[in-house]
Fold this sequence. Notes:
Blueprint: H1 2-22, H2 28-40, H3 43-49, H4 54-68, E1 73-75, E2 80-82, H5 84-108, E3 116-122, H6 124-131, H7 135-141, E4 145-151, H8 157-160, E5 165-169, E6 177-185, E7 187-191, E8 213-216, E9 226-230, E10 233-237, E11 243-245, H9 248-256, E12 261-265, H10 266-274, E13 279-281, E14 290-297, H11 304-315, H12 317-320
Parallel strand pairs: 3-4, 3-5, 8-11, 8-12
Antiparallel strand pairs: 1-2, 5-14, 6-14, 7-12, 7-13, 9-10
Amino acid sequence: MVAARGFMKKRVEGTRLMSRTHELPISEADARVFVTVADAGSFTAAAVLHSMTPSAVSKAIGRLEADLGVQLLARTTRALHLTEEGTAFHERCARAFDLLAEAAEEASAGTLAVAGTVRVGLPPLFGTFVVAPLLPALLAQHPKLRIEIVSTMRLSDIFDLGLDVAIAVGALPDSSLVARPLGYGQFVTVAAPACFREAPRPSRPEELLAHRRLAYTRPDGREEPWSFKTPEGQLQIETRAEVRSDDMHHLAAMTVAGLGIAHLPMFVVSKQIANGRLERLLQDFEHTPKPASLVYPASRAMPRRVRVFIDFLLSGKHQLAGVMRQEAPRPGD
Length: 333
């Protein structure tokens, strides 16, 4: 009888402990909405991610603040800012949800296949020539995985559009994003061998003006100048091209056809250079390569599907070596 009473006492105490552990003074759903609002910086972006209306998001934040008895967000007509209490609460909530997600994934890693959708933001050309060729191997390993590609070059779209990961080209500003280097890309000057049957190959950037030029046009309609490095410093050539396009796919196709000289990303024309359909010109004058990086939010929990995508792309660097420089440029390059 005494043993039975002792058992019942421990059971009751355990039940009380469980109740204290699981009875939160706030709604977990509202806390998740708050974390998303804080990360995205707007009610509208959080509403998209949670399949809610902005009004419902606002009500969730209001309930949470009422439950806690503190103001978490300072709202103005133009922006949202975390209060001091909101910053501390966000940090702990985000970490708690990260730990929960990690625990769930570790528990199911050995029994469940990688599934779900990875939303990836890619510069259009990078997606076409660098990432797309790698996807068949990824999906062969993980057939339940789905990939959604969004064409963008804006890092803010990671939050505004709810992207899981994006690829950025160029130097990255200080931000709340984690960056994983993929390699270095550069623009190269190319032409088909047929272009030089009756005209000499240019030996300096200024001599390009004696040949037909194919130029890229910016969204504002202006031509993108061609940039080179010389012993005297940076040199920009205003092409005044005979043929222009706002799509580098068009320029690459016309260059291979022998229409003229173009200035294009190396990863767009690497195969044509390797098989001799294009020649790489003025290599000594090429500008410093720019870094390309995988970026994702530092504060957001990383689902297993996203980690698998990132690990696969990083493990494919040997495949990227044919289209991207893998070592950092040396000083003076």
